[in-house]
Amino acid sequence: MAALANQLPIGLSIAAVLLLIALGLTFTFGQMGVVNMAHGEFIMVGAYTAYLLQGAVGGQSLLVALPVAFAVAGLLGLLLEWSLIRRFYGRPLDTLLLTWGVSLVLQQLARDVFGAPNVQVTAPAWLVGGVDVLGVRLPHNRVFITALAALCVLGVGLYLAKLPQGRRMRAVVQNRELAACSGIATGRVDRSTFLLGSGLAGVAGVALTLVGPVGPGLGTFYIVDAFLVVVAGGLGRLRGAVLAALALGFLNGYLEFWTDASLAKVLVFVAVIAFLQIRPQGMVALRGRSLG
Amino acid sequence: MSGRISLVLCVVLLAVAPLVLSPFRLGLLAKYLCFAIVAVGIALAWGRGGMLTLGQGVFFGLGGYAMGMHLKLREAGPAGLPDFMVWSGVEELPALWKPSANPVFALAAVVVLPGLVAFLLGLLVFRQRVRGAYFAILSQALAAAFVILLVGRQGLTGGTNGLTNFSRFFALDLTDPGGRRVVYAITAAALVLTYLAVKLVVRSRFGALLVAVRDHEDRVRFLGYDPALVKTITFAASAVVAGLAGALFVPVVGIISPALLGVVPSLELLVGVALGGRFSLAGAVAGAIAVNYAKTLFSEDFPEGWLYLQGGLFVLVLVFAPRGLAGVVEAARDRFRRRPREEVAG
Amino acid sequence: MNPVLEVRGLRVVFDGFAALDGVDLTVAEGELRFLIGPNGAGKTTLIDVITGLTRPAAGSVRFDGVELVGLREHRVVRLGVGRTFQTAAVFEELSVVDNLDLAAGFRLPLRSLLRRRRGISDEVAAALETAGLTALADRPAGVLSHGQRQWLEIGMLLVQRPRLLLLDEPVAGMSRDERERTGGLLERIARTHTVVVVEHDMEFLRRYAREVTVLHQGRVLREGSVAEVQDDPRVREVYLGRSKGEAVT
Ligand SMILES: Nc1ncnc2c1ncn2[C@@H]1O[C@H](COP(=O)(O)OP(=O)(O)O)[C@@H](O)[C@H]1O
Ligand SMILES: [Mg+2]
């Protein structure tokens, strides 16, 4: 029973990381139909940013790394959107392959710059160890990651609901043509979405340095699961992404605990397929009229 | 007609290769041909059917393991156990391996197993009208899960090392250049037959139906067809083709392992198809051979360069020639042909 | 005469908005029925429900006594109900003949589908003739004009030999000449088929309609002959009473 409860913070932090990664994906996918396989490399960029800052700043570099990684990954995303993806709107499958090509190049670039072996980021002292709450062991780093993700979701939620940019973004997600007709500069909205989504991936990368080493393949490890979150959650929906990330995070965590890591992945896949039999549009669906 | 001439030319080239290539180079060519077989299936599913499958490695692997398990059992030691099981302390042959001892079962499994898995997945996914990028993502997740499963079940699958150390392929001695030449011939024949079979499908009514489903799935329903079934059948066919290629890969290269089947290798299978042209079967075959040849060249002297080249190729092809080299050739030919007439009609 | 189509108490709700609200409709064998009503009246939605594209919240659709609600689209087609779309949808990369051949082949078993088409079947040739597309038979359907696409769609419908045809605004966006031809086509088809036509165009209606059903805000407002419907003050108010320009387009 105690072991079961101890699995809780682990499941929660897996969910938190998945969510940070999936947020950007679900909006770029939902809004622009772009399946960005290079998203994983923005995670890697964020993680390496934390690694570099550790050398430069030392001590409390983690707190500096969060905004810097957001900016670096975000700008990289912006660059990708502006230079390549822009030409591919309306061709989702082609963007998938295109961005995979970009991701290969970025990975090799990281290998050439930082070397193939993994590097380590040392967590600040206040994130080492944990506390016991009602007999459940809560490691500080896991709690921090969960809180970070919660904060980001809150931020994105407020952005979508309150800020004019966020409202424009929701409008474009729901109906691009109509939004364009109502005078929204959809190109600009697309770029800000890309900036935001890629930036969050960078933040996820910083978070990941707290639970494991950093290597050129860091992104590939998470991207598939993050895409499953997008599929299960429903396109471009914040609520869907949160629900799906929680479901998949816990499912992953507990299945690994009950069976083992190798079977868990297969079972999660089966679970997603089974879920799609009940709700093919994902947990939270956008409705529209098909065929006219 | 020019298509038929080029086909004959290619068959002649394939037939002459063993006479001019060293056994080592011939082995490499046979490997490329295996990937070319997969490419034919991908061109069918992706180019004709619009189903971007990022999990072809799974079906390649199912075919490969089905074949590898049988070959391993033929060479098994005194306890009837494959070598890797002895090393990892397995004492009795797992139930999953038992049927593989039967050659008929093994050969059937090579195509039935991948076909069945793809059919099941396709039915579940396409009936729910999950398609496009969603399908691509799901097929990729399948590849990820499959590899993790293979690696994790060391005693059953040989883990990361996979199945290797094959010295015989049925009656053929794989250590002997003569035996390897026969394996090459079988592979080349398999490629030609697969190509012809898929070509027939593409030209049939079913081929037209497939294009219709690709371009306007919702409309096809109102012609009284079930698009989910059309897609499922096609997807399964492409899986069968991949399984066949995987099975041949085992005697050709002498190994089948998870490193060949995961997310990245599955995507790599697409590079050649994209380069050659997904809408053209011949283009896909040529692209697959060319890309794998380039990979060999680069990995020999400049391994880091390969990833840049591969990534760069994807980007360049998609930006400048989304229909691949076949598309470029076609456009040039059309322009050449169109000049005299055309304006009259329309 | 036998009713071919019996729609009873049909209700369709989109996000709380009732697009159809208790619609009854009976179409007899061999009838040519016009379905009119202002934009948003629910005409297309009605066809969508009959053909399985949209699930109703309540009500039933019987075709020859068989319940259609709950069947998937291709099953409905296989029972003998065919439809066209407001914006004609044809397969642009396939040739005109292949479009028709595909439509005609929907009862073929997989085994025959896997064979190549040899020549042009009589049925397809006849449909080419009827649709006036014989000269364009081998061109990709993508090159067809808007009017030609509508005719191709109707041709695709005819080769399927449906017992009931549902045409959604077949003359919308057509030139005067094209309307004439479509009207002629419609008359010929109606001689041998049961047809329901959704149409806005008043001139077209006066010329070709016999029985008319008027939909308004998801309900049946009136049913009767063209003259009866035109004289009904309620119909005038919701439909004909508007500015003439609006009614005609
Ligand atoms: N999928 C849908 N979601 C929401 N509203 C819809 C949908 N389909 C139709 N409607 C609404 O239902 C009403 C009837 O539409 P429709 O049947 O297309 O009218 P008509 O064909 O008579 O012009 C319209 O108000 C339309 O906006
Ligand atoms: Mg309408």
From TrEMBL, chain A:
NCBIfam families: urea_trans_UrtB (TIGR03409). Belongs to the binding-protein-dependent transport system permease family. LivHM subfamily. It comes from the Bacteria. GO terms for cellular component: plasma membrane. GO terms for molecular function: transmembrane transporter activity. This is Branched-chain amino acid ABC transporter permease. The chain crosses the membrane at residues 6-27, 34-53, 59-80, 143-161, 194-214, 226-251, 263-280.
From TrEMBL, chain B:
Keywords: Cell membrane, Membrane, Transmembrane, Transmembrane helix. The chain crosses the membrane at residues 28-46, 104-126, 133-152, 182-202, 222-241, 247-264, 269-294, 306-329. The keyword Transmembrane helix applies. It is a multi-pass membrane protein. It comes from the Bacteria. GO terms for cellular component: plasma membrane. One of its GO terms (molecular function) is branched-chain amino acid transmembrane transporter activity. CDD domains: TM_PBP1_LivM_like. Pfam families: BPD_transp_2. The keyword Nucleotide-binding does not apply. It is found in: Cell membrane. NCBIfam families: urea_trans_UrtC. This is Urea ABC transporter permease subunit UrtC. It comes from Saccharothrix coeruleofusca.
From TrEMBL, chain C:
One of its GO terms (cellular component) is plasma membrane. It comes from Saccharothrix coeruleofusca. Keywords: ATP-binding, Nucleotide-binding, Transport. Signal peptide: none annotated. PROSITE patterns: ABC_TRANSPORTER_2. PANTHER family: CONSERVED COMPONENT OF ABC TRANSPORTER FOR NATURAL AMINO ACIDS-RELATED, HIGH-AFFINITY BRANCHED-CHAIN AMINO ACID TRANSPORT ATP-BINDING PROTEIN. Residues 5-242 form the ABC transporter domain. NCBIfam families: urea_trans_UrtD (TIGR03411). It comes from the Bacteria. SUPFAM superfamilies: P-loop containing nucleoside triphosphate hydrolases. InterPro entries: AAA+_ATPase, ABC_AA/LPS_Transport, ABC_transporter-like_ATP-bd, ABC_transptr_urea_ATP-bd_UrtD, BCA_ABC_TP_C, P-loop_NTPase. This is ABC transporter ATP-binding protein. Pfam families: ABC_tran, BCA_ABC_TP_C. GO terms for molecular function: ATP binding; ATP hydrolysis activity.
